[in-house]
Design brief:
471 residues; alpha/beta; 2-enoyl-CoA Hydratase, Chain A, domain 1; eight-stranded mixed β-sheet; lipid biosynthesis
Length: 471
C-alpha cells in the first residue's frame, strides 16, 4: 500500500498498515444540517509507515477532508496512534493542515485537545521522538494541542499558521491581521517552528527530525570565516583577548559546522544562539552554539536565545542524547528590553537545565567567554578551551569601569583576571587546552564525550572553589 495521495509529496515513506478505518462520528449533538463524514472522509488518518527504512507512526490531519477539523473520531485516532507508538517504542510523524475544532460536535470536539495532549505526553515520557510538518492552513485547537508539542516542527512556505484563523481575528478585533502575521515565516522568526521546508522535501525532513535518517550539513551564512584562526598567538593577555575578538576569527556556528556531519536545526527567536540535533564523531548529539556575529546586539544572547538553549538541553535529556556547547560571547544582552524579558532568569534556567541533564555534556570555549552569559552554556561535565580563547568573570572594559571608574585600564585588569587558557586550567576552571586545528578539535570533543561522566560538571567547580578557600 502506498501513502495516501492527499498527503504531501512523500519522498521516502510507505504505509505498512492503516488503523481505525471503521470509525465514524455518532453526531451526538444532532447538529442541524450536519451529516457526519464517512470514515474515509474523516479529517485524521493514522497508520504505521516505513520511513526511510525504519518504522514510524503517522498521523495525517488534512484540511481537504472535513476542513481538517478535530472531532471525536479524529481524537480517538490520534490518541490510539500515540499510544500504539508508545507501546511499540516508535517515533510519531505528523502532516497537518487544519481549521481547528469541529464546531458541529461542540464541546466533544474541544475535549480532544486535552485528550491528544495527554497521549502526546505519554509518548514523550517514553523517551520517543516526534515531528510535525505544518501545511496551510494550520490553526485552532489542533495547532494549540498535539501539533505544537512535537520535538521539532517545520512548515510549508507561505503557510497560514496561527491559533486564531484570519477570519476569527477579524471578527474578534475588527481587522484582519497584517500580512506579516499568521505566516510560516513569522512563526520561524519567533521560534515557533524550526524550519521552512518545501512540500517535496517534507518526508526527508521528517525522517531526519525523528532520527530515521541523517539531516544535511549545517550551511553557514555567506561571508563567514572559512577556516580556524591561524594568526600568530600573542603572549600579552590583553593582546590575546583582542585576537580572540578578531573579525576574521570563527565563532561557535563555524565550529558547529566543522565538527558535525549532519544537522537538523532547532529553531529559536534570537540567532545569537543556534541549536540542532547533529551527528558528531559518529554519534547523535544535541549541539548548542553561540554565534558572535548574530543577534540584535551581535554576539550578546537575549532571553529568547537562552530559552532555545534550555529547550535543546531538555530535549537531549529526554532523548538520552549527549550535549555539546560552543561558547563565544562578550556577555548577555544588557539592554532594558532584555532585562524586562527576564534575561537573568533565563540564564539561571539554562544553568538549571544543564545541572539536571542526565546525559554527558562537553563545552568548548572557541572565542570570548564573557561573564554569566557564557557560563550559562559552560556548566558541563567536561570543559575545553581553544588555545586562542579566553574566559572571564566580566569583560575587562566593563570591569575596569566598575573597579577603577576608568575603562582605559582594561589591559591592566585583563592581566590581573587570569583569563587565558592555561590560566583557566591552572585554576581548575577548565579541563584542557585544545589547539585550533579542526582535526584536533574533533578528536578532543569526541574523546571528551566518550569519557564524560554525567554529573561530573559539579566536581570541577567544587574543586576549584575548595582550592580558593583557606581556613
Amino acid at each position: 500500500m502506498t501513502i495516501d495521495p492527499l498527503a504531501p509529496e512523500r519522498g521516502a515513506a510507505e504505509v505498512v498498515e492503516s488503523w481505525d478505518d471503521d470509525l465514524r462520528s455518532a453526531d451526538v449533538l444532532e447538529f442541524p444540517g450536519y451529516t457526519a463524514p464517512a470514515s474515509a472522509d474523516e479529517s485524521v488518518r493514522t497508520a504505521l509507515v516505513d520511513l526511510a527504512g525504519s518504522p514510524a507512526v503517522w498521523i495525517d490531519c488534512d484540511f481537504r477532508r472535513s476542513g481538517g477539523t478535530m472531532g471525536a473520531v479524529a481524537g480517538v485516532r490520534i490518541v490510539r496512534a500515540f499510544d500504539r507508538a508508545s507501546a511499540a517504542g516508535l517515533p510519531v510523524v505528523q502532516t497537518v493542515s487544519t481549521g481547528g475544532a469541529r464546531l458541529q460536535e461542540g464541546m466533544i470536539s474541544l475535549l480532544q485537545m486535552p485528550r491528544t495532549v495527554s497521549a502526546a505526553a505519554r509518548h514523550a515520557a517514553a523517551g520517543l521522538r516526534s515531528a510535525a510538518y505544518l501545511r496551510s492552513p494550520t490553526t485552532g485547537g489542533v495547532f494549540a494541542s498535539f501539533a505544537s508539542l512535537t520535538d521539532l516542527r517545520a512548515a510549508q512556505p507561505d503557510a497560514t499558521i496561527g491559533f486564531g484563523g484570519p477570519r476569527v481575528v477579524a471578527e474578534v478585533t475588527g481587522a484582519y491581521p497584517p500580512p506579516t502575521s499568521h505566516t510560516a515565516e513569522s512563526a520561524l522568526g519567533h521560534g515557533l517552528i524550526d524550519a521552512i521546508v518545501p512540500p517535496e522535501e517534507c518526508w526527508d525532513w521528517l525522517a531526519a527530525a525523528v532520527g530515521a535518517a541523517d539531516g544535511g550539513p549545517l550551511v553557514l551564512p555567506e561571508g563567514r570565516p572559512a577556516a580556524p584562526d591561524t594568526s600568530p598567538s600573542r603572549p600579552d593577555p590583553y593582546d590575546h583577548l583582542i585576537r580572540a575578538r578578531g573579525a576574521l576569527r570563527p565563532s561557535g556556528l563555524e565550529w558547529a559546522a566543522w565538527l558535525t556531519d549532519s544537522w537538523t536545526g532547532i529553531g529559536g527567536s534570537d540567532p545569537a544562539i543556534r541549536a540542532g540535533i547533529a551527528v558528531l564523531g559518529g554519534r547523535r548529539a544535541v549541539v548548542v552554539a553561540m554565534d558572535r556575529f548574530a543577534g540584535r546586539t551581535p554576539g550578546a544572547p537575549g532571553p529568547g536565545a537562552f530559552r532555545l538553549a534550555q529547550r535543546a538541553v531538555r530535549l537531549a535529556d529526554r532523548l538520552g542524547l549527549p550535549v555539546v556547547t560552543l561558547v563565544d560571547t562578550p556577555g548577555a544582552d544588557p539592554r532594558p528590553d532584555s532585562e524586562a524579558g527576564g534575561v537573568a532568569r533565563e540564564i539561571a534556567r539554562t544553568l538549571l537545565a544543564l545541572a539536571e541533564l542526565r546525559s554527558p555534556s562537553v563545552c568548548l570555549v572557541v572565542g570570548e567567554g564573557g561573564s554569566g552569559g557564557a557560563m550559562a552554556l559552560a556548566h558541563t561535565d567536561h570543559l575545553l578551551v581553544l588555545d586562542g580563547a579566553v574566559f572571564s568573570v566580566i569583560g575587562p572594559e566593563a570591569g575596569a569601569a566598575v573597579l577603577y571608574r576608568d575603562s582605559a585600564r582594561a589591559p591592566e585588569l585583563t592581566r590581573a583576571l587570569r583569563m587565558t587558557p592555561r590560566d583557566l586550567v591552572r585554576l581548575g576552571v577548565a579541563d584542557a587546552v585544545v589547539a585550533e586545528d579542526t582535526a584536533a578539535v574533533r578528536a578532543a570533543v569526541a574523546d571528551a564525550l566518550a569519557h564524560a561522566r554525567p554529573g561530573a560538571r559539579d566536581g570541577r567547580p567544587d574543586a576549584a572553589t575548595a582550592a580558593a578557600v583557606t581556613s
